[in-house]
From TrEMBL:
Gene3D superfamilies: Aspartate Aminotransferase, domain 1, Type I PLP-dependent aspartate aminotransferase-like (Major domain). It comes from Lysobacter silvisoli. The lineage of its organism: Bacteria, Pseudomonadati, Pseudomonadota, Gammaproteobacteria, Lysobacterales. Belongs to the class-III pyridoxal-phosphate-dependent aminotransferase family. This is Aspartate aminotransferase family protein. Keywords: Aminotransferase, Pyridoxal phosphate, Transferase. One of its GO terms (molecular function) is pyridoxal phosphate binding. It comes from the Bacteria.
Length: 449
């Protein structure tokens, strides 16, 4: 006979009775109450322990409870916890200096927000004011946040319940060689056709009305889509030709995730605006922001920027950013993301692709990878249909459960496993996690024809 379920803890009971969490219903499947974490591991009240292959929401680049980061937050808390943004303070100005220092050349000024969505809202505002135009082009395969403008700018189905959104958003298809919208035969053709489609979209919308092209440098939640070489250069050229601002959304991939400070550094392209959040301080205290080109920032030399937030440049969050950037530098974590990707993750995932019929595609950059799971590797039918939920999504839920049961916390989206471990993960742990993925894929293989 099964042992009776233990009574829920006070934390579990309060959660169930009073909390509404992101993207969730509250009455079904309450989550485990997490009690602590260290490095790439975390554990719940019952002592169940997981290796984190998702860095929470792809933010925890330095792992849980990094002593230097905790100490910096504690020291700032003892000095000055909070401050209105019209004052200057050492933590905020030092964070801005360090961010400008690692940003692409010419991007030299930082506007701070509390997270990614607000960064996107402000970048759109800046692009509109700079160009005097209104329209913003964004990709169908994108996520930019959940506030009014950012969710409208997002392409993925999370936008649907918030529609109709504000006017002025126009969507296009970006490159995605595995499921090409352009019936391209290879990455080079995909690049060429995606750029031609973008140029056509600009022409049809009227370039004189387009303020910005907003895109994730490497598409995150919508598939870990690494653009083919030449695509971002092509977008930059189209923006230059038509006086359009290029906004690189680096909220998920900035600050080392892809093995460079910013993912766009891989292609040497300099956008006009960069949005960041997550990795800037590993999410220890909420922080995001926009990095502005000199040309866009200039407008506000003697005229007030018409936007702001009570907590813009929050000292605790910025002290955490200062420490986190120091950790990236001193521990060589940006380089480590690249090396782990090239020497461990890429070869191991390729092995999984060859071994498991359910693995249709493997792609990624640095410490950011995706496995696309299919029912049929020949016709590429996804393991679960687009926007599946409930019973339709069961194969992916079973796969995720198989990972969790074996002690791995996976990041499962649609028919994909995204792999984004903390950059501090021990190589041995990384290999063990990949071995768990290997074992769990047997569950997915059972659905293959
Ligand atoms: N932009 C991108 C690329 C993201 O991945 C996210 C969040 O995952 C956001 C924006 C929104 O960030 P936030 O959830 O901090 O508002």
């Amino acid at each position: 006979e099964a042992a009776p379920e233990p009574a829920p803890s006070p934390a579990a009971r309060s959660d169930r009775e009073h909390l509404l969490r992101s993207w969730s219903s509250y009455a079904d499947a309450p989550p485990a109450v997490i009690a602590g974490g260290e490095g790439a591991h975390f554990w719940d009240e019952q002592g169940r322990r997981w290796l984190d292959f998702s860095s929470q929401l792809v933010n925890l680049n330095v792992g849980h409870q990094h002593p230097r980061l905790v100490a910096a937050i504690r020291a700032q808390a003892e000095t000055l916890c909070t401050l209105a943004p019209y004052h200057a303070n050492a933590a905020t100005s030092e964070a801005a200096r360090l961010i400008a220092d690692v940003a692409p050349p010419g991007l030299n000024r930082v506007f701070f927000t509390n997270g990614g969505a607000e960064a996107v809202e402000n970048a759109i505002r800046m692009a509109r004011l700079h160009t005097g135009r209104h329209k913003v082009l964004t990709a169908y395969r994108s996520y930019h946040g959940a506030t009014a403008g950012a969710i409208a700018a997002s392409g993925d189905p999370r936008r649907w319940p918030s529609e109709p959104g504000p006017p002025g958003i126009v969507r296009f298809w970006g490159p995605y060689a595995y499921r090409s919208a352009f019936h391209a035969a290879d990455a080079a053709q995909e690049c060429e056709r995606a750029l031609a489609h973008l140029a056509d979209t600009i022409a049809a919308e009227g370039p004189q009305g387009i303020a910005a092209i907003l895109l994730e440098t490497v598409v995150g939640a919508n598939g870990v889509l690494v653009p083919p070489d030449g695509y971002l250069q092509g977008v930059r050229a189209l923006c230059d030709a038509h006086g359009i601002a290029m906004i690189a959304d680096e909220v998920m991939v900035g600050f080392g995730r892809c093995g460079q400070w910013f993912a766009i550094d891989h292609w040497g392209v300099v956008p006009d605006l960069i949005t960041f959040a997550k990795g800037v301080n590993a999410g220890y205290v909420p922080l995001g922001g926009v990095i502005l080109s000199e040309a866009i920032a200039e407008r506000y030399a003697h005229r007030a920027y018409p936007g702001g937030l009570t907590y813009s440049g929050h000292p605790l969050a910025c002290a955490a950013a200062v420490a986190c950037i120091g950790i990236y530098r001193d521990e060589g974590l940006i380089e480590r993301a690249r090396v782990l990707g090239e020497t461990v993750i890429a070869p191991e995932l390729e092995r999984l692709r060859l071994r498991h019929p359910s693995v249709g595609d493997v792609r990624g950059l640095g410490a950011f990878w995706g496995l696309e799971l299919v029912r049929n590797p020949v016709n590429r039918e996804p393991l679960v249909p687009f926007n599946a939920s409930g019973a339709e999504a069961a194969p992916m839920a079973e796969f995720a459960a198989a990972c969790k049961q074996r002690g791995l916390w996976p990041f499962v989206v649609a028919n994909r496993l995204h792999i984004a471990p903390p950059l501090v993960i021990a190589e041995q742990d990384l290999r063990e996690g990949l071995a768990i993925v290997d074992a769990a894929l047997d569950v997915a293989d059972r659905y293959c024809v």
